[in-house]
């Protein structure tokens, strides 16, 4: 489609994922961002555990019971002339594959850290997933209104544990009850926490890094301390380096308190300036597709079934990579060559789902799906004929044999399994000769979600038998000899009929490798 404003629209997009260890404040900060964008009118709309208003990210019962976000949700708002798309990610590491696929659909990531806790287990794991993706990472250190750890110590820990350079964009002046404000290094100003205690202004500009001589803050010893610390990080710390930020080798660090809405707007203002606009995406062709390419294209990075139990719908989340999406347009589904009409498409606002009329690169649209789409599918307009890069799968490390409890319910059992596999909720294998079902997961919770959803959505009670096997390795089908299967391994095939072996441990795998040195054992990601 010819859209004269395409470039301008694309350049205004900022699409990012938000990650954190549970309870660091991801939901609270998301809510504040949505408030600034006018997408919601009151706090408590995104996750109202107490009021019973569950947000989009808590679609499933299991999430409500556990209070964790199993799936990712998408929210959009406008701020300072930019259109911002936030993709929420599941905090739990068991769903890191889902997180990774979400990261494939964004151009940057924001990591939220609790200032009292520093880098927590999940932060570290999720960070590693982001790092693999090589996109810019912004850090927000939260809960300054409480007593937390010293900023220098937090930055040191961040650099050491995550192996990334950090650059403080601002510096807390006090914390907890003694929180006075932020020394904003980037904007050369001070932002007061309680402006009414001083001269009433929230922001005061600095001259040569200093506040006016007669300002009451000057008398506080904390102010001198902060000047000293800022000087120290200026001299001994890393220099601000946009190229490093773009490569994900340096993270700009912001401090604040999401709950008291302090420092969040400053973060957002700077974020929309520094965060990258939509990038070109790699395809099977030599050249990546430019986001300014006129013909529409995008890929499915997530499929979510039964978001609304009343409607039993299924939605394919599509990251738009080029062109302009228009409601009712015809596209080709690359994998099958089938023509699809995109008439029933939603966009994700915080408290409503609205019909989307137009979207460009960077935007996420939700296409109603009756079972046509799979994760990784490319959609394109006209003759574009591209296939976006395959979305990587993680090598599962947990396996279960699975059967239907009630043999009369085979049909719903099969339907459920295939749909959940298409969604990427679980991986499916069959024993090579006997076709018994084996499901594979990266984390134990995936099995629980699987079992729960099979029962609730497909009315199929499943029996799962844990297997001791932890290692899956694929082999070239041409090298396969069925005699390689022994009591020390299980020969299976994946859903594309590719052969693989499951081993109980490293010894069993090494024994195999020694016996068949010519056979290459391959893992996924
Ligand atoms: P999530 O699990 O990362 O989404 O975390 P939530 O946003 O649900 O926050 C977890 C808890 O921390 C909630 O009780 C919040 O009210 C609280 N919280 C979030 N941000 C702050 C903050 O800046 N200061 C304080 N004191 N509490 C906060």
Automatic annotation (TrEMBL):
Compartment(s) where it occurs, according to its Swiss-Prot or TrEMBL record: Cytoplasm
Binding locations of GTP: 20-27, 88-92, 142-145
Domain Tr-type G: 11-279
UniProt KW keywords: Cytoplasm, GTP-binding, Nucleotide-binding, Protein biosynthesis
InterPro entries per UniProt: EF-G-like_DII, EFG_III/V, G_TR_CS, P-loop_NTPase, PrfC, RF3_C, RF3_dom_3_sf, Small_GTP-bd
Major subcellular location class: cytoplasm
HAMAP family: Rel_fac_3 (MF_00072)
Function according to Swiss-Prot or TrEMBL: Increases the formation of ribosomal termination complexes and stimulates activities of RF-1 and RF-2. It binds guanine nucleotides and has strong preference for UGA stop codons. It may interact directly with the ribosome. The stimulation of RF-1 and RF-2 is significantly reduced by GTP and GDP, but not by GMP.
Protein name: Peptide chain release factor 3
């Amino acid at each position: 489609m010819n859209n004269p404003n395409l470039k301008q629209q694309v350049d205004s997009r900022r699409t990012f994922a938000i990650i954190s260890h549970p309870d660091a404040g991801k939901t609270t900060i998301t809510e504040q961002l949505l408030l600034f964008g006018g997408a919601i009118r009151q706090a408590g709309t995104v996750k109202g555990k107490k009021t019973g208003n569950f947000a989009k990210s808590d679609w499933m019962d299991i999430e409500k019971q556990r209070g964790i976000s199993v799936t990712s949700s998408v929210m959009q708002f406008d701020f300072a002339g930019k259109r911002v798309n936030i993709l929420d990610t599941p905090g739990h590491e068991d769903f890191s594959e889902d997180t990774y696929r979400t990261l494939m659909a964004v151009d940057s990531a924001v990591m939220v850290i609790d200032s009292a806790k520093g880098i927590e287990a999940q932060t570290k794991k999720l960070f590693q997933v982001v790092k693999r993706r090589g996109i810019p990472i912004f850090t927000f250190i939260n809960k300054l209104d409480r007593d937390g750890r010293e900023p220098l110590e937090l930055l040191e820990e961040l650099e050491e544990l995550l192996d990334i350079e950090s650059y403080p964009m601002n510096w807390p002046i006090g914390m907890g009850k003694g929180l006075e404000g932020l020394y904003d290094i980037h904007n050369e100003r001070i932002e007061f926490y309680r402006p009414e205690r001083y001269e009433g202004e929230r922001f005061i500009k600095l001259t040569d890094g200093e506040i006016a001589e007669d300002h009451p803050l000057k008398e506080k010893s904390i102010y001198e301390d902060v000047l000293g610390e800022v000087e120290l990080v200026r001299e001994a710390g890393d220099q601000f380096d946009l190229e490093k930020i773009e490569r994900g080798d340096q993270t700009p660090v912001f401090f604040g308190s999401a709950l008291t809405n302090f420092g969040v707007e400053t973060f957002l203002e700077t974020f929309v300036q520094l965060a990258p606009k939509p990038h070109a995406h790699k395809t099977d062709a030599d050249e990546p597709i430019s986001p300014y390419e006129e013909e529409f294209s995008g890929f499915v990075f997530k499929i979510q079934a039964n978001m609304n139990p009343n409607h039993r719908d299924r939605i394919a989340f599509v990251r738009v990579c080029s062109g302009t999406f228009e409601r009712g347009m015809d596209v080709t589904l690359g994998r099958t060559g089938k023509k699809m009409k995109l008439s029933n498409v939603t966009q994700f606002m915080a408290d409503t789902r609205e019909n989307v009329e137009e979207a460009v690169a960077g935007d996420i649209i939700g296409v109603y799906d009756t079972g046509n789409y799979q994760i990784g599918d490319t959609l394109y307009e006209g003759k574009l004929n591209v296939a976006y890069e395959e979305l990587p799968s993680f090598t599962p490390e947990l396996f279960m044999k699975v059967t239907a409890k009630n043999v009369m319910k085979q049909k719903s059992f099969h339907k459920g399994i295939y749909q959940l596999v298409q969604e990427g909720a679980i991986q499916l294998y069959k024993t090579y000769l006997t076709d018994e079902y084996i499901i594979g997961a990266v984390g134990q919770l995936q099995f629980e979600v699987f079992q729960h959803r099979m029962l609730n959505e497909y009315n199929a009670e499943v029996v799962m038998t844990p297997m001791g096997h932890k290692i899956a390795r694929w082999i070239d089908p041409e090298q396969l000899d069925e005699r390689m299967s022994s009591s020390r391994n299980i020969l299976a095939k994946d859903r594309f009929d590719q052969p693989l072996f499951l081993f109980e441990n490293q010894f069993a795998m090494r024994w195999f490798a020694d016996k068949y040195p010519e056979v290459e054992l391959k893992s996924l990601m």
